[in-house]
Amino acid sequence: MKGICELYKTEEELRKSHIHPKFAVAYYKKTGSRFLRNWSNPNKRLQDAETHYLLSSKAEEEFSKREKWFSENIFKPYLEENRKVLNYDENLLYFTISYLWRTLVVLLRNKELDNHWGLKIILEAENEWRELLSNNEYPKKHNRFYLLLTDRIKHHTLDSNYVDFYFTRVMDFTTVSNENQTFLAVYAKFNKFIFWSVLKGGNEDQLVDVKINPIKGKINIPQQLEEQIILSFFLIGLIKWKIHQNQVRNSKKR
């Protein structure tokens, strides 16, 4: 399919791009059902994760290099070897930005953010991230990135049966913001890996343990997360999920 490559903005033969990494999709199928479950409609079985015609072969190859690095240095060591200390280099930042950037492109393409109060900020981030991914130009403004590695949740106080499922299995992406327009973030997750970038607001002192350093660093597990807006987002999302499930059940009874 001919079209404009979202990364290089050139007309190319486009490839069907996974939004969530292929290795994460493969692991999901390997460790559970061969079908995927969509967070917004979990009763619908899917053969594959969400894909879009976004990138040229050159762009896909660049992203694949970092996906391979993440799979071999972070994903497998944590999930399959149960390592508690994970060292990383600049590939983690590139992978994180490439993942979050793809989710933004899809949300913007689908016009889901057209009426968002932070649209101007989101467009600035998309442009800065694209410049890093295509020209290695480090973001001057939107350069705060975070990664939280979760684990099985056996005990919690939330009124939901899907807490463990969400934090260990679900693939999801969205934006996070508050009503008084003081906080805005881009958020995406697969399996036990939650990524986000804060575009406005946020308390840096409460995000030290999950912050990604641009050059190198290490992830010490377990991590601490105290940022209240992000924590509230998890809670609100699970409450909405419960309401949605109740609505589905009630509609089936009618």
Structurally, the number of domains stands at 1
Give the overall form: globular
Strand order, sheet with most strands: 7-10-9-8
Identify low-pLDDT runs.
38-48
Helix count?
6
Rg, alpha carbons? 18 Å
Major sheet attributes: 4 strands, antiparallel
Overall pLDDT, averaged? Answer: 85
What is the succession of H and E elements? Answer: EEHEEEHEHHEHEEEEH
Say what oligomer this is: single chain
Task: Describe how the helices and strands are arranged.
Blueprint: E1 2-4, E2 11-18, H1 22-30, E3 36-37, E4 45-46, E5 51-56, H2 57-79, E6 85-88, H3 90-109, H4 119-135, E7 145-149, H5 163-168, E8 172-177, E9 184-190, E10 193-200, E11 217-220, H6 228-253
Antiparallel strand pairs: 1-2, 2-5, 3-4, 6-11, 7-10, 8-9, 9-10
Please tell me about this protein's structure.
It is a single chain. The protein has 254 residues and is α+β, with helices and mostly antiparallel strands. The chain has one domain (2-253). It contains 6 helices and 11 strands. It has helices spanning 22-30, 57-79, 90-109, 119-135, 163-168, 228-253, and strands at residues 2-4, 11-18, 36-37, 45-46, 51-56, 85-88, 145-149, 172-177, 184-190, 193-200, 217-220. The protein has a 4-stranded antiparallel β-sheet with strand order 7-10-9-8, with helices on both faces. It has a 3-stranded antiparallel β-sheet with strand order 1-2-5. A hairpin with a 6-residue loop joins strand 1 (2-4) and strand 2 (11-18). Helix 2 crosses helix 3 (90-109) and helix 3 packs across helix 4. The chain is globular.
